[in-house]
TrEMBL record, chains A, B:
Lineage of origin: Eukaryota, Viridiplantae, Streptophyta, Embryophyta, Tracheophyta
InterPro entries: Csc1-like, CSC1/OSCA1-like_7TM, CSC1/OSCA1-like_cyt, CSC1/OSCA1-like_N
Source organism, top-level taxon: Eukaryota
Domain CSC1/OSCA1-like N-terminal transmembrane: 5-167
Entry's Gene Ontology cellular component terms: plasma membrane
Cellular localisation: Membrane
Main localization category: membrane
Record's keyword terms, sorted: Calcium, Ion channel, Ion transport, Membrane, Transmembrane, Transmembrane helix, Transport
Name the record gives this protein: CSC1-like protein HYP1
Length: 717, 717
């Protein structure tokens, strides 16, 4: 690829981004789009009535940038919680790293690369220059200038480690401060106990066993417990009831729309009222079944219980010390927030859970390694010749140059992209089968899985461009990895630069435009004639498990290409600066937190950055060897070990803070609440906090519809 | 090697063993040898007076075998503690494993190997048959008989895993029972706190800081604390004093012997009395210095303290929950028994300790990998030609056939053995620099190090017989390991069989004969004219760190050669049966426990057995491949994974029990002691239990010598 082609591509994508931003700034001012662009405000009914039309609504304005930029970190913390702050710190951290990297890369390394003449000695015509001449490949073999690259690797590693330390420290302090400032919450006082011993020999229930055990061994702190019950059956019944209720509501609204003479696509047939009656009867039947199941439910206890304590420290004691003499019984873990509990998990026993976990790991590794095989097969089918064979009637169309270009040029990558879109839900499904007890843990686990998946299937598969089994073979010969990577990566630099510009920048602008929710909202309004209602409106939540790996993948590109092809760095810097503004805007307006882990996503960011650094060092060792500077190659060997030592230190220094709160904090918080008169009320509520929603009373039928006034209100611009 | 040669070697070694046992059974009956063969009884003065001479004393008798066999496991437990029981269980476990293995190996595999004709088709003359024809090498390539080996590998793995599970369970139960039956002990109520924050800003001492912290956060359970002080200087002074005192005592005894007209080698000069005076003055000076140092010691506190609690559960709470917000401060760990504390460790800070640990690991790995290089170099010097060059005056002697045979045949292995004898102390020294706080932890760590060292330098170095760096290269190409091992190991079978017979059996008989202590005792009596005295007599303690790796190494040989060369198995069975009797005898008579870890050595045995199994599987994969039975090779692949899964299950099921005691046990024990009237007294003593011995009052000079009546008493036979 030549420089001018890159600049063209950058220009086009920059133009697209501005177009998207302009569109966004207009669309978001339309009252009808409030549920799409400001669902948080819509759900909280904070949007003011402003139905009159004005010209300003049709003009793009940069006001949203200012509003996204303005709130301080503490304000963001109070609005959206610590997880959001941690997510934004990831952008701040990456922006800082790539600012430093850009300065070193563009001011020092780029000129040195450019002045080499390994590839060509013609420096006259800049625009037609191959991008390769900006990469390390252009430096002469054995040249002493490579020592500058060597120093740059050390300096860059030092800077990144310093920034990592700084961020880890900053977030750890924030986490402690967040805990100190928190109100008493059920999950602080509760633990989950699994593996309750079988009560059959003593003829008692699980509930009695738990009661006995904790009054025996934690007499002064034990408060209450809720034994978990097997509710799969009820849950499916309740789901059926909910579906029926929705359909019923829809039918009724169609009826009401007809009387008020509005268009309804489905409101043309005569059987409607009968249908409503029929559904209502069915709903009543189901509700009756649910109530029956709920009442006849004594025998269905699961050997797991949420046990609540009178103080946070009491819960911590039971959490941290092994309870029974058999370590597979009375297994304790922190309870998640009540709304964060993933209820379907509880049916599995210790052994079954453990086997599920192993199976999940195996499936995940197999999926990661073998993912490319089906993709390549399907892409093979998309070849022109094969298409013509299978679908002969397309022959005429396929012979057109434009169509054939489109198919050969875009179809393969389109298929890859489509497959990639399927992966995050699959990973989440695998994680949820692993027996995690909360949505947050599932997302965290899926996040790690997806990160490895991305690194393997986008980075390694593209860089080494071999079959999956060839890649596995490479891993089995660790000695060859540095030279293999060093030989393959510089050639892929241009591909990854365009990847940042096209995939990275575009993903940001499509994130802010929310094209799919926008279209969905139009289509539902158009076809179903359904108005949005703030009551049963669900605010979307941030899919951390797919977003964090995507953002970190660009950091991987930046870190590994830092001294191979520094040209990539300014584009990354732009990506992170843009991302900072855009995600801030989204958190303030769109996404509501579904759970609060207290910043537990940060260790993933930290660990993967360390991995990227070590990968960079391995590549450096390989490339100095290829460039015939063996001394530099050997002198780089300590660098990964030093980095891993640094990581080990950070693990000791910070990781425990992210695992549990220390005695000091717990007791201080407990003392603070001791004289609080509202504590008694809170402790009373605690015993019912962890109630399975499937066991809540159900009442859908004959309920008041009450949807007469649609709540669409325009946003103040 | 042919069969008859092996039988000769076995015969010779068997004869040697019986000779040693006969010698032992005579020597142990001599009253003068009581301190060598029954130091435990000697120290406890349990040996009865029996000075009259009888003929029985000169006749060998097998009574000691019966006495060693008789005590039950519970009796052994009460006499010597749980660690000894665990050590003996290792022999029981190995004996069981190799009984099963011998039955399968000798009855099934050996005939199959022998009936093959890959190596030779002459089965007429048994005694001149090569030992190779009993190994798997003799089975024809691609023969279906190899499936029997395949089945044997599965069956053997199953049996070993079952036995492992059984033993782990047995020892875990024993450990809990041992805790329940124990009296209140200081280390159950105490934790060690390191990384006490710097008190300088507040102007307080470490002691005050500790007091404040624990009265603040553990008000109901905190009892007292002892801040550790830097005592290196005092300790060296006390050591000096002790040496002087011994020399003085020796001088005085020489004097007294002279007056009582007994021979003394050194008692012939006139300056003695002056010397005594001189030494006594010097001793007084040193003692004065010690007292000065002890009193002027306020400023030398170390940021570490032993903190005692009123209950075991109280100590466990402080132990298991992170205390301060900074995880590198207030680091807690279990306190060792007071006599087990390794006092010199305390001077290091968190960071320094951590760096020491990393350095120790690096040194240890380097020593393990590069050990063979100096050995080979020194062995090279032992070549005849080089010896002649360096020491020309030996030329005449070296030309004698006998001498040259000796030097070329035995010197290299002698040098290797001598180097090997130096390794256990070196490993222990490395471990003690790692910052462990107790002798038991140091021995445990040294034990693991030595185990890897032995596996690497005896097993791999002999099997693959290449240079150290070649071996490291092998490790870097993991794909080749199975076939390399499979090709190399069968050839080494005869070497390892003779190794078991010579090194294994001989080490046992020399263990029981205690040749070096015997000679030492004779020489000190002969030259120093010193009588043993039960007062300052030190009972030897078991060097677990060198014995466990040695015993386990033979298990490694047995497991890996189980289906390669089953001929090794009966010899191993003999080794373990002999070892069982001999070590029982030693524990009852010779070794006194220096510390009690409560069976914490067992996980080492378990983990290494798992490693041996996996190694066996890897070899099996390789050998089935070499023998052209690729299907068996592929079907063996799941076996290591299943074994590792089994290990993972055991880790979850049993390991936590070996790390700490659960709430259930702690609270039961605490309740038991609640109404005990002696507890108050015990708790009072607790506050001074962890006093550095260097800070104890010193009084050597002018002390009463009181050694007039030597306490040599003959043993009842």
């Amino acid at each position: 690829m030549i420089l001018s082609a890159l600049l063209t591509s950058v220009g086009i994508n920059l133009g697209l981004c501005f177009l998207f931003f302009t569109l966004y700034s207009i669309l978001r001012k339309q009252p009808i789009n409030v549920p799409v662009y400001s669902p948080r405000l819509f759900a909280e009914r904070k949007t003011q009535q402003q139905n009159y039309f004005n010209l300003e609504r049709l003009l793009p304005s940069p006001g949203w940038v200012k509003r996204a930029w303005q709130p301080s970190e503490d304000e963001l913390l109070s609005i959206s919680g610590l997880d959001v702050v941690v997510f934004m710190r990831m952008f701040v951290f990456c922006a800082r790293v790539f600012t430093v990297a850009s300065i070193i890369g563009v001011c020092v390394l780029l000129p040195i690369n450019f002045l080499g003449n390994q590839l060509t000695d013609d420096i006259s015509n800049l625009p037609t220059k191959s991008l390769e001449s900006f990469s390390i490949s252009n430096v002469n073999d054995g040249s002493n200038r490579l020592w500058i690259h060597f120093c740059a690797a050390y300096v860059f590693t030092g800077v990144v480690c310093y920034l990592l330390y700084y961020e880890y420290n900053h977030i750890a302090l924030k986490r402690i401060a967040y805990f100190y400032s928190s109100k008493p919450q059920p999950h602080q006082f509760t633990i989950l106990v699994r593996g309750i011993p079988n009560p059959a020999p003593s003829g008692r229930t699980f509930s009695q066993i738990v009661e006995n055990f904790f009054t025996e061994y934690h007499p002064s702190t034990y408060l209450s417990h809720t034994v978990v019950r097997r509710t799969n059956k009820i849950r499916s019944l309740v789901n059926d009831a909910e579906k029926l209720y929705r359909r019923l509501g829809h039918l009724k609204s169609v009826n009401s729309h007809q009387t008020s003479k509005r268009d309804g696509c489905l409101g043309l047939f005569g059987r409607k009222v009968d249908l409503v009656d029929h559904y209502e009867k069915k709903l009543e039947d189901i509700e009756h079944n649910v109530r029956l199941e709920q009442s006849s439910f004594a025998g269905e206890e699961v050997p797991a219980a949420f046990v609540s304590f009178k103080s946070r420290f009491g819960a911590a004691i039971a959490l941290h010390i092994q309870q029974g003499t058999n370590p597979t019984e009375w297994v304790t873990e922190k309870a998640p927030e009540p709304k964060d509990v993933y209820w379907p998990f509880f049916s599995a026993s210790f052994i079954r859970k453990w086997i599920c976990k192993i199976a999940a790991v195996v499936v995940c590794i197999a999926l990661t390694i073998l993912f490319l095989i089906p993709v390549v097969l399907v892409q093979g089918l998309a070849n022109l010749d094969q298409l013509e064979t299978y679908l002969p009637f397309l022959k005429g169309v396929l012979r057109l140059t434009f169509v054939s270009n489109l198919i050969t040029g875009y179809l393969p990558s389109l298929i890859l992209q489509m497959f990639l879109y399927v992966v995050p839900p699959i990973m989440k499904a695998i994680s949820s089968m692993e027996g995690y007890i909360s949505h947050s843990q599932i997302e965290k686990s899926a996040c790690t899985k997806l990160l490895w998946f991305t690194v393997w299937n986008i980075f390694f598969a593209n860089a080494l461009s071999g079959s999956a089994l060839y890649l596995v073979n490479v891993l089995l010969e660790p000695k060859k990895i540095p030279s293999l990577l060093a030989a393959a990566l510089p050639a892929q630099a241009t591909f990854f630069i365009t990847y940042v510009v096209t995939s990275g920048w575009t993903s940001l602008s499509s994130e802010i435009l929310r094209l799919i929710p926008l279209l969905c909202s139009y289509f539902t309004r158009l076809f179903a004639g359904k108005d949005d209602n703030a009551d049963d409106f669900e605010v979307p939540c941030m899919p951390y498990h797919s977003e964090i790996p995507r953002v970190l993948f660009f950091a991987l590109l930046g870190v590994t290409y830092f001294f191979l092809a520094p040209l990539i760095l300014p584009f990354l810097l732009v990506y992170y600066c843009l991302g900072y503004i855009i995600y801030r805007n989204q958190f303030l307006n769109v996404y509501a937190p579904k759970f609060e882990t207290g910043g537990k996503f940060w260790p993933i960011v930290h660990n993967s950055t360390i991995f990227f650094l070590v990968l960079m060092h391995i590549i450096a060792i390989g490339i100095f060897g290829l460039k015939k500077l063996p001394l530099a190659s050997s002198l780089t060997v300590p660098l990964p070990f030093l980095t891993l030592l640094f990581n080990e230190y950070c693990r000791k220094r910070f990781l425990p803070i992210f695992k549990a709160y220390p005695t000091e904090c717990l007791i201080k918080k407990d003392r603070e609440n001791q004289n609080d008169p509202t504590m008694n009320e809170f402790l009373e509520k605690l015993s019912t906090a962890y109630q399975d929603p499937a066991l809540m009373p159900v009442q859908y039928s004959r309920s008041d519809d009450g949807r007469s006034t649609p709540l669409l209100q325009p946003l103040d611009v």
